Amino acid sequence: MFVLKTLDDTVRILPAEQRKSLPTAVTDELNRKYSNKIKPKTGLCIRVFDVLDIGDGIVHACMDGSGMFPVKFRLIVFKPFTGEILTGKIVNASPEGLRVSMEFFDDILIPDYLLKPNTIYNKNQSQWVWQYQDEDSSEVQNMDMERGELIRFRVEVEHFNEVRPQTPLPGTNAMTPKMPSGTGKELRSSAYWIEV
Fold it and tell me: Cα dist. 130→75, 88, 113, 115, 123 in Å?
């Protein structure tokens, strides 16, 4: 679920930040740049784990006195693998499927076609119901999937979308299209019941 990714980047340290120790200033700037952001083909960046190397800085005379430092560092990244079993809470149910939250991440989708067989959507209660048939008695029991309930789900597909901020198009009041609010990360998963 969480992995360490090694990356290289060039970090700009402003003069006001240069009063901090160099490793602290570099770590703070890297966290500002990467934390809670989607990096396509990498995952959801959580925070900097450590800084492995800081190269010699360059201060350009025509700039504002900022130092540019090449750095090598490791990031903690949320990147579940296909087939991994995760636990989350149901936050919303719609005819399209379930939305699940892992507290730090809310954009997990379990589409209706990946729910257990014999699962139906109850429009009156706005929730999914798994109609479980007992093998011994052939009795059908309704297992409601209610909001706030913990479930376990298996990752079927992971897809990262980079979401850009909304900004007006030049010369108009129209806004650029963007993904729905959230990080834009979506896991298509199949759910199964968890006993609590």
Answer: 39, 18, 13, 9, 14
